[in-house]
Specification:
The protein is mainly alpha-helical. It folds into two domains: 41 residues; 146 residues, Serine Threonine Protein Phosphatase 5, Tetratricopeptide repeat.
Length: 216
């Protein structure tokens, strides 16, 4: 009975992705593979007959992914041809499937190489897949987005975020300051950006070696 329910849910999910979210036909195989991968994982590790053992909720990790998605949308995500790819990738990211999200977006940028929003999303997925660390592939994705649309706030914002998470605070501050200097006064992300820069300044000040006084 349990397997019948699982298979029904898998078919329903695939149908929703195809007929409701209308993912591109080229993404059908990837979506199906992701579902089969999940079922295979359950077959190897699932034990539905055992009593439940609740674990602490992972609210923080999920909230971080949700916050990144909202921040990207706030910075000018388009809802044209890339919308279907974004919906699928965001759904995977919300469930922690960052590698699958990166694979979806990797296919998307091959079909839409001039879409800066897709490159930004790919960079984010690659960073999240690397536990918040900046990688050459993620850096390439952010730079590609910046080259396509130099005025897009997403590439420098998320590049700075990845640099900060990787411990490169001074580099992150420099990137964010340049973005702040060219951002309109009414930009919806400006207040958050100013707060992040101020927080980095406090961290850098705390790391700076203390100069001994004359009496020491």
């Amino acid at each position: 009975m349990t397997w019948a329910i699982i298979l029904a849910i898998a078919f329903a999910a695939f149908g929703a992705m195809v007929f409701v979210f209308r993912i591109p036909r080229l993404g059908w195989e990837l979506a199906g593979a992701a579902l089969l991968f999940g079922i295979a994982g359950y077959a190897l590790q699932g034990h539905p007959g055992q009593p439940g053992s609740p674990t602490p909720p992972r609210e923080n990790a999920k909230s971080d992914s949700e916050a990144l998605i909202k921040a990207r949308q706030q910075m000018g995500e388009s809802y044209g041809q890339s919308a279907n790819w974004m919906v699928l990738a965001d759904g995977l990211a919300r469930h922690g499937e960052f590698r699958a999200a990166a694979e979806v977006l990797g296919t998307a940028v091959k079909q839409n190489p001039k879409d800066a929003d897709l490159w930004v999303a790919l960079g984010n997925a690659l960073v999240e897949h690397s536990d918040g660390m900046i990688t050459p592939a993620a850096q390439f994705a952010f730079q590609k987005a910046a080259n396509i649309d130099p005025q897009h706030p997403g590439p420098p914002f998320f590049m700075g975020l990845a640099l900060a998470q990787s411990g490169r605070l001074a580099d992150a501050r420099a990137v964010w300051q340049q973005l702040l200097d060219r951002s309109p006064a009414d930009a919806p992300y400006r207040q958050d950006l100013e707060a992040r820069i101020a927080r980095i300044d406090r961290m850098l000040a705390a790391q700076a070696p203390q100069t001994p006084s004359a009496g020491d």
